[in-house]
């Protein structure tokens, strides 16, 4: 019986994990350590600005013990969606940290880098050929939108990882990657069934989020066999239950049982989740249905402008009763003062905390609170214009007269001086589309680098 | 007193499913509770659409998943994740109206 054991130390590189958990996991003799380092969840700015969701310091702190453990045992450390977005600059950022650690620990390492950046001209050409289609509820694409898009990555499947593994690297730093691949790659290389392999990857990629108590700051071990897999938390204080693992199967997916990914669909319709012991769950029945036409997912962002933010409190019951009308009136004042607001080139967004800031039009609660936290977001073509509109609107709000007003000195409690924040560029997801490809491997260049002694 | 979803479900949560959709998971601790709510007719595409004030067509999936004793539904997002006008970048706090949904 074949068996592949994969250690997932945490849900996201940089979130931290207990050293004791890593030690427990290593005692199970894993064949690889696999860790996810990115997601689109944090927002489009990561891709747009080339930043991540965790600090360099936290990434280094988490990476160091993983590199040492993997090197000692001669097992690969597989990092996917490097640096938060998987963009090339973030692959290089991760490599830089690895170099620093190699230097400090006097290690020589073979590192495979896999890039996932896509040339906008290539995307445009594929769009013209009719090879792109929206994923889920993403709006249709236009050539203008592609022109406005500043960064595009493609989400790779297993192929580039299998290519990298052939060269027996100590570490793989992958660009944007379908989350389950880091865990599944070694199993696929060994010819195992992709159904359970990808499903195990789906569970492990969030670390101990599929355990109870749940956290992304701790890990799990996955044991893949011919027709099933087992998952168990590394930390003795946590357990996996049939429900915690089943629940995680549903996590962040549109449909519970049909999970599309590069190369095919993971069909979990007939899955069974069984408790093996107090802390371990066995999963059977995961199937992978390869798609006839190969596609990869493209993720791209465009800059929508610059943002300025005002935070203010309102405590006067008279203002609170009339706040909807008053905010509308003040927005109209901004529109009559700024042409860009009139034309829609600049936009104001009020969020009224205590009333409906979290859910907006989908809010069902209609009662009014005793105080409102007011956030004004202004987006305009330049930072200066966004800041100007925000400041104008703040002073208009502060001194806005209304029926029954008694607090004639001012309507806002401003917690910060200066009251507005220049929040910088705003990005929006402009491409979230599948593109047909004949040879997915050709899109993702694999580059080997030797670092450490003798460099 | 009427039984609400909060009384019978163990997990009621929302989260992004990609930047253009928010998905909702409701999970039950026992098969009895799961079957009971599934049969009640109180938790359907239509009741969820009414609860969130959206058209039924904005519910891109509504699926009962027996292996997890769970029901999942997915709504389109009012704005894409992290875009200007965003209220909940991760979509993690859109579940609250479900808590008080009467299920029997």
Ends distance of chain B? 10 Å
Counting DSSP H or I runs of 4 or more residues, the number of helices of chain A is: 13
Spans where pLDDT lies below 50 across 5 or more residues of chain A: none
Order of adjacent strands in the largest pleated sheet of chain A: 12-13-9-8-1-2-3-7-4-19
Mean pLDDT of chain A: 96
Q: What is the total tally of β strands of chain B?
A: 4
Arrangement of strands in the largest sheet of chain B = 1-2-4-3
Question: What report would you give on this structure?
Answer:
The complex is a heterodimer of chains A (455) and B (104). Helix content of chain A is 32%, strand content 29%. Chain A is of the alpha+beta class and 455 residues long. Chain A has 2 domains: 267 residues, no CATH class; 125 residues, Alpha-Beta Plaits. In chain A, strand 12 and strand 13 form a beta hairpin. Chain A is globular. The mean pLDDT of chain A is 96. With 104 residues, chain B is an alpha+beta fold. In chain B, 25% of the residues lie in helices and 29% in strands. The longest helix of chain B is centred in the middle third of the chain and has 10 residues. The relative contact order of chain B is 0.30. The mean pLDDT of chain B is 94. At the A-B interface, helix 10, strand 15, strand 16 and strand 18 of A face strand 1, strand 2, strand 3 and strand 4 of B.
């Amino acid at each position: 019986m074949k068996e592949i054991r994969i250690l997932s130390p945490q849900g996201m590189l940089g979130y931290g994990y207990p050293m004791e958990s890593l030690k427990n996991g290593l005692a199970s003799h894993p064949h690889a350590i696999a860790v996810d380092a990115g997601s689109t969840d944090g927002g489009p700015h990561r891709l747009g600005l080339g930043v991540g969701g965790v600090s360099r310091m936290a990434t280094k702190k988490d990476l160091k013990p993983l590199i040492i453990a993997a090197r000692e045992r001669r097992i690969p450390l597989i990092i996917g969606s490097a640096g938060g977005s998987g963009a090339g600059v973030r692959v290089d950022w991760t490599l830089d940290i690895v170099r620093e650690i190699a230097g400090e620990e006097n290690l020589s390492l073979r590192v495979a880098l896999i890039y996932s950046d896509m040339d906008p001209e290539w995307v445009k050409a594929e769009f013209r050929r009719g090879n792109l289609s929206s994923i889920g509820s993403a709006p249709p694409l236009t050539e203008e939108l592609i022109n406005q898009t500043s960064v595009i990555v493609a989400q790779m499947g297993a192929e580039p990882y299998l290519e990298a593994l052939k060269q027996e690297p100590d570490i793989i730093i992958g660009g944007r990657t379908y989350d389950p691949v880091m865990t599944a790659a070694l199993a696929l290389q060994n010819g195992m069934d992709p159904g359970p392999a990808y499903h195990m990857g789906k569970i492990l990629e969030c670390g101990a989020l599929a355990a109870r108590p749940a956290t992304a700051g701790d890990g799990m071990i996955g044991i893949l066999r011919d027709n099933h897999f087992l998952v168990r938390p590394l930390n003795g204080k946590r357990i996996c239950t049939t429900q915690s693992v089943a629940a995680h199967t549903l996590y962040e997916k549109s449909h519970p049982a049909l999970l599309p990914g590069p190369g095919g669909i993971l069909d979990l319709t007939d899955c069974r989740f069984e408790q093996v012991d107090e802390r371990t769950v066995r999963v059977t029945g995961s199937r992978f249905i390869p798609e006839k036409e190969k596609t990869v997912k493209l993720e791209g962002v465009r800059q929508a402008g610059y943002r300025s933010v005002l935070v203010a409190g309102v405590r006067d019951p008279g203002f609170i009763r009339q706040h909807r009308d008053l905010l509308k009136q003040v927005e109209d004042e901004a529109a009559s003062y700024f042409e860009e607001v009139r034309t829609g080139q600049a936009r104001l967004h009020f969020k009224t905390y205590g009333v409906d800031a979290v859910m907006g039009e989908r809010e069902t609660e209609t009662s009014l609170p005793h105080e409102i936290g007011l956030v004004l977001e202004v987006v305009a073509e330049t930072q200066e214009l966004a800041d100007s509109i925000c400041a104008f609107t703040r002073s208009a709000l502060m001194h806005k007269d209304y029926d029954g007003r008694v607090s004639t000195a001012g309507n806002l409690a401003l917690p910060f001086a200066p009251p507005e924040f220049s929040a910088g560029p705003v990005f929006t997801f402009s491409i979230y589309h599948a593109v047909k490809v004949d040879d997915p491997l050709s899109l993702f260049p694999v580059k080997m680098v030797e670092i450490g002694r003798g460099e | 007193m009427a039984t609400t979803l909060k009384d019978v479900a163990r997990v009621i949560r929302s989260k992004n499913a990609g930047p253009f959709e928010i998905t909702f998971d409701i999970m039950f601790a026992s098969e009895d509770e799961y079957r009971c709510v599934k049969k009640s007719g109180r938790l359907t595409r239509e009741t969820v659409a009414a609860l969130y004030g959206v058209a039924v067509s904005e519910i891109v999936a509504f699926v009962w998943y027996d292996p997890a004793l769970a029901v999942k539904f997915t709504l389109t997002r009012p704005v894409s994740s992290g875009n200007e006008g965003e209220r909940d970048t991760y979509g993690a706090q859109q579940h609250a109206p479900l808590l008080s949904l009467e299920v029997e």
